[in-house]
Amino acid sequence: MTKNERIKELKELRKLANDNLNQYKVLGFDKNKSWISNKTKISIQELKEIIKKINYDLHPDQVEHYCTLHSKNNSNLATADDLVELFNVVMSQARFDTMIFDIARLSPSSNILMDISWLPDGNVGDYFSIYLQKKDISILEKYLPRKIVELEDRIIPQLRLSDEFEDIVVILETAIDSSNKENFIASSLLLITASESLVRVMAQRIYKIQNPNISSQDVQHHIYSKYHSLESLIIKGNWLSDYPIKFSEALVFYKDVNADSLNLLREKYSKHIVAKNNIERKLKKLDENTTDQNILLKYLTELKTLSGNLMTENDKEIKINLAVMLDFLVRKYKDDRNQIIHGNFKNYNLKWKNYINFAAVVKIFDVFTEYNKFYKSSDLCS
Q: How many CB atoms lie within 10 A of CB 181?
């Protein structure tokens, strides 16, 4: 790759990111909805970070270094050390194929109108094509059979272990039957009901574990009476931030969630990257033959100051709560749910929409299963 080619692809990425950023400034969606406002703030911050990274990689020294290593590799002149350095440079610098995916994901049409990044099925190619509007979102309907099988073979048998889930199992089985008959609106209505019931039954167990001194009656009041909407229960339910997760996983799995713990993590990570880049630049500028104590002391002081923003072992794990893990339920999913409940069936008797509702049930179950493992308790599903 020549320097001009590298500069050209980086500038193309920067233009796409800036175009998305400008679209958010004139966003025509309902910004009064808190989830849209929250997601917009995160997306704008992510796009700014992407642009900052691209600008860093556009520095002549970075372009020169990147292209020199690529040239050596392509001409078979690279040593073992060169190959290691090339790998590190490629992994640390902006890569067109991965960065364009993130930029496309962060476009308002993909990020707000669709809000599908939480879905567990599909491959990068599927989502990339959807984000770039090369394929319709309806291609996701091909994953519906898989989700039904997962529900029948993995989840329903576990729910049968407790009488508390008996009615939910009946609803899920009826939803499956309706879907198999291609009555997708009836199936989705049933799945919406099952999802909310599943959240409340399992959340009741979580809340009791987190508040062992509260009576069962008070726990039930908290879950079923205090919060009439599922959204308020999830957002305002006073959930403890006690579930540990690696910071790298948090940045990937909950990239769309606006929560204090995650926002602090994003801020720390951003400062870490800036500090890391500045340290690398200063080390490159330092002549290894320098013996002047004043110069060395100056560099050492500057490096020590910069290193204060580097993430440490203590930052490798954070703790999140149930509101973070179920955040997908209070975004586009909630808006679609409200439309169906209010009788707007026209746009929802669709196979791919039915898939999303099945996927939500599976994700809900898996969230509580993970909490179950964390607490090392059999209370949730037995």
A: 10
